[in-house]
Amino acid sequence: MCAVTIFGISLAYFMVLLDTTVLAVAEPDLAASLHASTAGLQWATTAYTVVFAAALLSAGAVADRFGAHRVFRAGVAVFALASLLSAVAPAIEVLVGLRAVLGAAAAACVPASMAMIARIRPEPAARARAVAVWAAVSGAAVAAGPVAGGLLVDLAGWRAVFLVNLPIAAFALVATKHIRCPSTDREVDWRAHLAVGLALAAATDALIAAGASDWLHAAVAATVAAVLGRKIKDLDPILLRANGVRPTLAVGAAVNFALNGCLFVLPLVFARHLHLDAATTGLAFLPLTLPFALNPPLTARLVARFGPRTPILLGLALLTTGGTTLGATVHLGSYGPIVFGLLCTGLGVSFVLPALVTALLDAAPPGSAGTAGGILNAVRQTGATLGVAVMGALGFGTALALCGAVCAVTGLWFLRRTAPTATPQQPGPATTP
Question: What's an example GO cellular component term for this entry (predicted)?
Fold first, then answer.
């Protein structure tokens, strides 16, 4: 029964991650069906990641406060309902609103799922095995997303990509119905969480407006973001002041900037320059996405032997190489040279992200696993949002090269601001894109 429960928890995260990638290959069909502009496509993608990131800041604290099992099941149920409504959305504006609801529901699932695994597998060795299953199953979502999305779009149009969530959500709810997690008396600073969430939305709006050369709109939105963003220091001062936490969080943002930016730009490249259909585009992403499902066990062994710092730096080096390669080869009109860049990028992500969770939880105070997980996933989704907004405003080659530059700069900061740690006795928890 416990194995089924862990699989159900993993499938919920699978569903959440699937929605970050499955829509990518549907962009051309979605644009034609709903007459959406590039800005509309950006918001259809970023509405999910903006709200996901903003709500994650609160969701981790809420899971600690009210019980992870309650928050998890509520998130899964709302996700299923919003997916059903998205499948029948009549206009791009309606779809953007529903994607925002999906982002909030997704945020309820992720930190709670980490806390639930820690609850049912408290022993380090058993927890590591459970997290390996969680990482592999959820990592498969990133690998499956473009492929499944492409097949579904070619078979039944973009609306079909949302219907696949319904059976997954049903299984997750049934498999986890017996779990009970304790609540705590930790207070949640709702005003700070709301202010930071609105700041993120305003910053995304500013970037998209700048990409459309609407400079007045961009300036107003950027000012709002700067004013509200000052509240970030109030979210969890103890955690944010801990040694090495800020560069670790910056790495999470940089990796998702590169990953989600690539997932937004490359389908457009494949359609316009290589003339690939949706299903072929999904298959073309496999060198990027397969390492997410296959590499977590190797990363866990590296963390166990060398600590989290080594795989993080290795992954950032690969991401730098991958982004630089993609930027240089994307205009050649041939898929072959792109494969190396895709593979380096996928391997880089699969080395960095599992190790980041160990690095952050090592610094988190007791009783704050949900909060730490929420903050890490929030900054990752912030990076994802910025990646789509910034790279969508640039030329393809420049945008992809920027991925490599961002990862290189962040890697240098992480290298300077963190020190090698003692070799852990057990592999730490892992996560996926």
Answer: plasma membrane
CA torsion, points 18, 20, 21, 27, in degrees to nearest 10?
A: 130
Tokens of 241: 């002041």
pLDDT, tens digit (0-9, with 9 covering 90-100), for 198-251: 777 787 677 767 766 778 888 888 898 888 777 665 555 555 665 667 788 889
- Locate 110 and state its tokens: 């992720």
* Alpha-carbon distances, residue 371 vs 45, 177, 234, 238 (angstroms): 25, 23, 13, 12
Q: Which residues of 206-215 are buried (b: 16+ CB within 10 A; e: fewer)?
A: bbbbbbeeee
For residues 257 and 403, is the Cβ–Cβ distance under 8 A? yes
CA of residue 188 relative to chain centroid, distance: 23
Q: Which two tokens stand for residue 326?
A: 């993609």
CA atoms of 202 and 308, how far apart (whole Å): 34
State how far the Cα of 61 lies from the Cα of 235, in Å rounded to an integer.
10
Alpha carbons within 13 angstroms on the beta-carbon side of residue 212 total: 18
2-179+236-417 CATH choice from 1.10.3720.10, 1.10.10.60, 1.20.1250.20, 1.10.10.10: 1.20.1250.20
End-to-end CA distance of the chain: 27
Q: Where are the domains of the chain?
A: 2-179+236-417, 190-235
CA distance 35 to 38: 10
The token pair at 411 is 């890697």
Q: Extract the tokens encoding 6.
A: 């862990």
Question: How many residues appear in the chain?
Answer: 433
d(CA 45, CA 29): 14
Report the predicted TM-score, pTM, of the whole model to 2 decimal places: 0.68
Degrees (nearest 5) of the Cα angle 283, 165, 355?
65
Contacting residues for 377 by C-beta, under 8 A, at least 6 apart: 53, 56, 60, 107, 110, 111, 431
The 10s digit of each residue's pLDDT in 117-141 is: 777 766 655 655 666 666 667 666 6
